[in-house]
Write a structure and sequence with these properties.
Layout: H1 2-17, E1 37-38, E2 41-42, E3 45-49, E4 55-59, E5 64-71, E6 77-79, H2 87-92, E7 99-101, E8 107-108, E9 112-115, E10 118-121, E11 130-131, E12 144-149, E13 152-159, E14 170-178, E15 183-192, E16 196-197, E17 201-203, E18 205-206, E19 219-222, E20 226-228, E21 241-242, E22 254-255, H3 266-271, E23 275-279, E24 291-294, E25 300-306, E26 310-314, E27 337-342, E28 357-358, E29 364-374
Antiparallel strand pairs: 1-2, 3-4, 4-5, 5-6, 7-17, 8-11, 9-10, 12-13, 13-14, 14-15, 15-29, 16-28, 18-27, 19-22, 19-24, 20-21, 20-23, 23-26, 24-25, 25-29, 26-27
Length: 376
């Protein structure tokens, strides 16, 4: 009897020492798959959750939103953003999935701009222009991260003077808050020790069906009467055109796929679909919906709010079906829609447009809210 007792105690002791299986997030991610070192800094996965069991996963590599779990009209939770389930994929497969973009989101013509009579040359990483801060913009940097509570993450990054050719040491802070009304509230701040330019945004690829097959049926609304046309290198021409009577008119909810292949319209041809900046009628009022996206299939509705003057809408034209994302899902051509609140592209070279200039003693503020609900 004594031997049996000792055997039972030993068995319990061994069981207590056995490693417990790692618990996956609601979206099926494992934190351990996001823990490594990049440029001497540790990466990790952070989970935000609200009282409605909505879940948002973020990695500090590029300040990226990795997954967003929201309920559809039946209550089923769906992951509505594209991304990877391993940090190694984010490192090895160039992408902007879910990323915090900076120092300057979108394009700067020929990678050049002049500020206070000084000309700066930036990398040319996209058709002869500087795109999204250069080949090693913020999306490929490791942010310092703190999570003060289950619904908030704070990401900070010091971009040094001369990084990717930009002037000034800028201290950046990105605060992502998952609110109890199912919104991701993103607040950007930056300060500098030297005159510079700043234009930050989030580059989440949204597919509200949750299956990354197509964006064609998604209903898109943009509260904008005008937009900035582009040339064949995706660079703004300096013109501001009306959307009226064109495929660029989304003032009422319209299927993304309705005119996306109308290459007889030169702007669709130049953008290979939609890859343009719309000038928002909301004029910096972040209490008003500036754009919305809805899936007729799931009923999920995304409303966007911002204090920025423009929004870049990108219809995933360069996804080609060769990338496999979370859980091995193939990301088909035009499997998503990006809604990037921002200053207009190439604003440093167009002084008549809202200025992206930041000077010592000033604080850059940008605000974007992605609010999810079920369409009525």
């Amino acid at each position: 009897m004594k031997k049996m007792y000792l055997w039972a105690v030993a068995a319990l002791s061994l069981a207590s020492c056995a490693p417990t299986a790692e618990k996956a997030t609601e979206s099926g991610l494992l934190r351990s798959n996001f823990q490594t070192e990049v440029d001497g800094k540790k990466t990790d996965l952070y989970v935000l959750r609200n009282k409605n069991n909505m879940e948002v996963c973020v990695t500090n590599f590029g300040g990226r939103i990795v997954s967003v779990m929201v309920p559809d009209r039946t209550g089923q939770m769906r992951d509505v953003v594209l991304g990877f389930d391993s940090i190694q994929d984010y490192i090895n497969v160039p992408s902007d999935f879910g990323a915090t973009i900076g120092r300057y989101a979108n394009r700067i013509g020929q990678g050049k701009f002049t500020l206070d009579s000084v000309e700066y040359q930036l990398p040319k990483n996209n058709f002869g222009h500087c795109l999204h801060g250069g080949p090693k913009g913020f999306q490929y940097r490791v942010f310092d991260a703190t999570q003060p509570n289950p619904q908030e993450i704070q990401l900070t990054y010091l971009a040094k003077d001369g990084e990717e050719g930009f002037p000034g040491n800028i201290q950046c802070k990105v605060t992502m808050t998952l609110t109890d009304d199912n919104a991701i509230d993103i607040a950007y701040e930056a300060t500098t020790d030297k005159p510079t330019i700043v234009n930050m945004t989030n580059h989440s690829y949204f597919n509200l069906d949750g299956d990354a097959r197509s964006n064609a049926d998604h209903l898109l609304m943009i509260d904008a009467d005008t937009y900035t046309p582009v040339d064949s290198t995706f660079m703004t021409t300096g013109a501001i055109d009306s959307v009226a009577g064109t495929p660029m008119d989304f003032r009422i909810p319209t299927p993304v796929g309705k005119n996306i292949d109308d290459f007889d319209f030169v702007q669709i041809k130049n953008g290979h679909g939609f890859d343009h900046n719309w000038i928002l009628n909301t004029k910096g009022d972040d209490t008003k919906v500036c754009a919305s996206l809805e899936s007729p299939k799931t009923g999920i509705l995304l409303d966007v709010y911002t204090n920025e003057p423009g929004i870049q809408v990108y219809s995933g034209n360069f996804l080609d079906g060769t990338i496999k994302g979370k859980h091995g899902i193939v990301y088909n051509p035009r499997a998503s829609v990006c809604l990037e609140t921002q200053k207009y592209p190439d604003s440093p070279n167009k002084p008549e447009w809202p200025s992206p200039v930041l000077r010592p003693g000033e604080t850059y503020h940008s605000h974007c809210v992605f609010r999810f609900s079920v369409a009525k």
